Amino acid sequence: MTTATRRGILAVVTSLVLLALGLGLGVVVGDALGIRTEPAAQMEPAAPAASGLGAPVPAPETLDIDAPEGVRYDAAIASLREAVDAASTREGEVSITVLAGAGDESDDTYRLAGTPSALRIEAGSETGAVRALYDLAYQARTAQSLSARLGDEVASRLPFRMVDMGAVGVEPDPAAWEVGTNYSHASEAFADVLLPEAPYIDDAALAVVFDDFDVFLRHSLENGYNAVAFPGFIEFVAFEDVADGEVSASDDEHRAQALALRDAFGPFWQHADDLGMDVFLRTDMLTLTTPLEEYLTSRFGSLDTENPELWEVYAAGLDELYAAQPALDGVLIRIGEAGDVYDVEGWDYYSQLAVRTPEAVRAMLTTLSAQAEAGGREVIFRTWSVGVGAVGDMHTNPASYEEVLGGIDSPALVVSTKYTLGDFYSWLPLNDTLEQGQQRRIVEFQSRREFENFGAFPNDLGREYQYALQTLLDANPRIEGVWVWTQDGGPWRAGPMTLYLKSGFWQLYELDTVVASALARDPGADVADVTAGWARQWFSDDPATVAAITTAMDVSREAIEQGMYIEAFADQRVFAIGLEPPPMMWIFEWDILTGDSAVLDVLYAISRDATGGDIESVIAGGREAVRTVEAMRDAVAGTDAATWRDPALRDAFVGTLDYELDVLRLLGAYRAMILHQGQWHDTLSPEAYAQWDADRVAYEELAAAHLAAYEGDLDYPAFNLTAAQLGVERAERDLPMAWLARVLLALAAAWVVIGMLAARTSLVRRPGAAAARATWIASTRPWRARESTLGVLELDRWLLLIVPGALLVATRAVQTSFLSWTHLAVVFGAWAVFAVVVRLCVGRRSPWPVIAAVGGVVVLRCIVTLFALSFSGPGGYWFAFWTEPVFRTAYIAIAFALFVWVFVAAGWAMSAQVGARRATGSVLAAVGASLAIPAVVVGAIGLETALSLWNDEMGLLPWGLARILGITTYLEIPPETPWLAAAFGAVLFAVGALLAVPWRRAARADRAAGADRA
């Protein structure tokens, strides 16, 4: 067998190995993307029904109440009198006698006896008697008869009904909302109260907030709630009784702050307790201060959350706090979110996502539940979590729930879970993890739906809540309560400035707070009556006006579900990158209309497959939503203004429907545009392209009008259209880039063909043909690189460098639509470093053999990319990557094989000049340097910053990802990755340099041979 034959066989084998590796890499990439869907069982709420409240009933003109003395009675009686005094019509006299026993104070059962004019409340406890008074106040506020339940025994199905803190302590500062891009989850409650230095509390501001808290508590009691989640924990603990000394020195400001804050807010908790509200401190875990983190690290070596002794430190803190503040009833713990987005600037209180394993959760709950049992308190643990593994999906995966929580059955432990199988989105199934477990359970609801424009649109969730509670209670008798978020969830200042009980049209989402409580007390309650009662309380008791409002609210969910979601995508469970993306990915958290290829291409593909390719039916859902809101607006706007209790509320209602109509028209146009864009990439149909272009014009007109009307509006803020516009700009370039790719592909193919033909014909004597021949031979048979460049003229030598270099620049520019200079800088910077190092290693020998080899492979690699770009431009390239597994795998296999072949060819070409060892070392050194230097630059800039800049230009992942969650956080990329890459590159460089330098024993022979090889 000749040497040439052996080399040819080796080259073929090497190529096949590289293709196999590339194929394996393609499979790994596809597996990592993990894009798949599975059917989702949708909730099945009852159809809308007419209210049976009947005609409004006047409140009594005279009200005489005989009740025991006490703070709770005083508050309930005040609520009843205020409701009666505010009634639009009053007549007659009613007396109420309150009789309460000394029974179980956790039982709010009562019986309404007597006559319509002489009512008698009979309750086994003060709690029941007070509840009866609040119920009578509700009857008066909703223009219903006080004697409607005469003769009935009234009991609550779920005894525990908790609310968040609403907007207590949050200042409605227009300047903070005008920007609209503050995605911090910190409420900044009590910002005016807290001082950075001693005495740490502004007493005047504290008094104002106390009144704020009092109003919220009384209102929540009126709505049927009996517990409140108060933010904070670590802020109130001095850690004076830990096992082996002090967490911080006696003169440390953290200790002084904790004692000052505890003393300041202790009266708040006591006041809530006096009014009959349980108080739970709401905290993330791990929650830390600098001294506490230093103490834990010093004592345990790290923040080892699997060590029960670490949790004993927190248990000691709770013991200390409960001893000082007996009004506290327990702690509410979340482990699934933490970090900077929740921290308050200027205060050394922060949290970390450190509880990541089942063992850590179990150590935490076992220790803290035992502490709660001993102290007569409770621990509420939220299953809401993010990340990978059992802890990451225990909120939605029954097997993971059991792995994390199975067997932990402390009577002091309560597990809290959102009713949806995910976050508070529409189209999600009922969370079946609420049907399992031995623990006590509570169900979480959200009134001001953060993902559905923060409650700025009518959104009557009553029938969905009812379906959820009835289904879950039938399945799990251990459910004993609800937790309703009246205000919280998501960023506080990125949406409308609606603050519960304070500013904006908060009455709109008050309905969901009221109906959640009503259903917790009676899951069979008539939700139509609750909606009508809400309309009577806040807007009008005119039957026609109430009917118009309830009619609009009846279909409000349909408008949300069809207008803000794309049903064909949203009604399936989608999985990607080991996570379960939410059903509203095209509107990225929370008001960003996204323009990235990953989301929009996958959304199109799933919608296409779900409808058998009927994209027009998917687009029609947006138009249907618009028609629904038009009917809602007509109904409300058609009411008689004189029948409304407050003209400003009528204006707000009509205004919010105008706003919703504008938004849904905008979303409908964008939906049509992105789906037709996907259809063009998918089918290459000229008709689809023409439809996309028409949709683009319509969308841009609506977008301009939307921004002109609502940008800077505090009540109806404009959506963030930056990412969408970036997507439009990229899409506009797709067809021109496709034509450029076709031209470049033809030129590159011609260069290769000339090279192939010139090797065997007289064409080689034409200008440039010799260079083409050299690159073809050197790239496919690199051991002949030196031979192929012998006798090449000066012009042809420069073409060896210029043609591949220019093609590489042009290909990458087209691939990025001339929009990502970051991408080009990194790619060309790496290639430049590689070329410089190789040139230095070649030394005095001719560089043209290796230039020909590398340049020839670069041309082949560019041809592969240009072929992929030639169909419908960069958009089509990425569409196929995200949605076509076969294409993606084949492309990766070929592209990877050619990429690695660059270095194989370079080393092979050099080996004829410097020997195999030194050639290998030269290539390794060049690869190491071309990896290390860009990695150092990225590390110096910051990985998150660099990735965000690159992604903004490329539009691959959601634009909002960097601004809200962080790309590295979301994808769990360690921030030290560039430094690790740089270190690996440095090692490669060092090894390569060691192999590349002449060794002493071979130096003389090498020098002798060098003259012949030069």
TrEMBL record:
Q: Does the keyword Signal apply?
A: no
- Domain of life, source organism: Bacteria
**Has keyword Transmembrane?**
yes
Keyword field: Membrane, Transmembrane, Transmembrane helix
**Transmembrane region positions?**
739-759, 798-815, 821-842, 849-871, 891-911, 923-943, 979-997
Q: Which InterPro entries match?
A: GH
Look up the signal peptide feature and give its range. none
Report the protein name in the record.
Answer: Glycosyl hydrolase family 67 C-terminal domain-containing protein
Q: What is the lineage of its organism?
A: Bacteria, Bacillati, Actinomycetota, Actinomycetes, Micrococcales
